[in-house]
Specification:
mainly alpha, elongated
Amino acid sequence: MVQLRSRKTTEGMQTMHKALKLDSGAEMLNDVAYEMAEADTNLEEALDYSRRSIKEVEERSQRVDFQNIQQADLQLPLTIIIVLTGTHWVGSTSRLVIWRGRKVT
């Protein structure tokens, strides 16, 4: 993340992809998408990661067994808020870049 913020885009993206190989869950997808949007790089890919994080959380929420609530299930509402907020930010950043007439890369 530090690499992306210091404009070492290639190294930063390599680190992000390694992180996703270790953990491709909704939270990591959301974090990586946010960092990419903050660094104003690979915005289409960031938006894809963000959308994937929402899909995963939606699927997870559909599997909750309300007769047998687990601790992880109690964290789900917060996770949903986090990924929706992240997706809104990444999507807004992507649209802003397109609106300014810059190429989305």
